[in-house]
Amino acid sequence: MIVLSRQMATKVHGKAQCRHIRGTSVQVHRISALFWGSKKSAAPPQEVDFSLGDFTLTGSTPEGISANEVKSKRISVSVVSSILEVSPNDWDACALDATGPEKYNPFLTHGFLSSLEESNCAVKETGWMPRHMIVKDECENILGVVPLYLKSHSYGEFVFDHSWADAYYNFGARYYPKLQCCVPFTPVTGPRILIRNTSFKDQVFDVMVSALKELAAKASVSSSFRISTAEDAPALLHSQLSSLHITFPSENEWQKLKEGGFLQRIGMQYHWKNRNYKKLASRLNLGNNHLNWTLMAMDDSRKECMDVIGMISVQNLTMKRLRGYEIKARHWDSFYNFYRNTTNNKWGTPYLTREFFHNLGSKMGDQVLLVVAEEGEELVAGALNLIGGDTLFGRLWGCQPQAYYPSLHFEACYYQAIEAAIELNLNTVEAGAQGEHKIQRGYMPVTTYSCHYLMDKSFRKAIEEFLVRESTQVRLVTKLLHESGPFKEGIQQIEENEALT
């Protein structure tokens, strides 16, 4: 049986025999500035120490060995104000151990997250104050990390809690600031508590969950923060953290976090699954156009899909899929303009900057797949994808302003992604949040997860009751959409039989 003992603000005496995994020094920071305004006067500022202290992990005693001979493991938990304070090797080692190589998730990497910070997308000024959690052992080896942000709004999360904020406001309470554990602007499922594969892995997970809750509670007890306005003039805010949210975690984490007192929430996305189409297309002599097998497996939607594909050649458009060094600066400049056109047309907020796309291309290399449409020599549209261990992640789309190319969106975002996934032997295409129109293109509903820890017991109870009703509706809609999906009856069993022969 594992025993977790806590020793707050205790220094480790003596020198331990250390074996470095990929050691790096991480500085502990204190929060003394926040970034939202207040209409109320506030008490004098207090500096809030977000160091979370030291922990000792003690394992069970093996047979034949006395308890005194069993070595304990001392770890410390702290918070840093930027991912740049953690080495890429250390962060990525935690991320890769958390997913495994086969489920590698590019959005959890240091390259992706640092691109957001360095390009001023996920920073204090945009309402995303980085407060990443770091766990180290006594030898300065990093054993775990958590992407964490202190937020003054609910934008860019894709798990919607604006109504919760309204409810707080109507009762005279504040919902913001809150803590958000997530990948900014990215509705992609994956582990959120990233831990190295060690013999203490499960215990480190428990410590990190406890530390996250304590971080929220500690900030809530401390009622005063110093902030800076947009004009950099000092101001004061009397405020508390309302909550801690972990969005798009893995299902395994979702279940574990329930045991830690988190409320559970589910949502729905639309994913395409590769039912061994490459092998089946070859057997049926469909040539290199493996997408044909996807369409053969579908009923009423097949003709519409073929019509969409045919429109591309009629409009004299050329589709290309670019990776790594094939993506030049001009492509990123054009794609940024396409992205801004999309946000402008949808009255959205352009969360991402031009610099972000250039950073992304530089840091992520061949993990980036950019689908572009050309009319002659001119780029007219594009769709951004990232390549994971077994999944192609579709993220953003855009086209030239004041241009209209019928069905190009479906071709660039869905059919090109399917074709690329088959060629790369990937199991899944995730096409982002929302969109029932994806069903007739072979993208079927899947469940997504989030966890919520609210400090106020009364609001917690009310939201818990709401989530029970919401989850019932989400499960019902998911079931109905599967039953009315475009795939022919029995096609999955046929595919499975073919795959076995």
Question: If you had to describe this structure to a student in words, what would you say it looks like?
Answer:
- The strands form 4 sheets. Strands 6-9-10-14-21-15-20-19-18-17-16 form an 11-stranded mixed sheet, with helices on both faces. A 6-stranded antiparallel sheet has the order 1-4-5-7-8-11, with helices on both faces. The chain has a two-stranded antiparallel ribbon with strand order 2-3.
- 34% of the residues lie in helices and 24% in strands.
- The protein contains 13 helices and 21 strands.
- A hairpin with a 3-residue loop joins strand 18 (378-387) and strand 19 (391-399).
- It has 501 residues and is an alpha+beta fold.
- The chain folds into 2 domains: 23-60 and 70-261, Aminopeptidase (3-Layer(aba) Sandwich), CATH 3.40.630; 271-445, 3-Layer(aba) Sandwich (Aminopeptidase).
- The radius of gyration is 25 Å and the shape is globular.
- Residues 1-16, 22-48, 65-70, 222-238, 283-288 and 490-501 have low confidence and may be disordered.
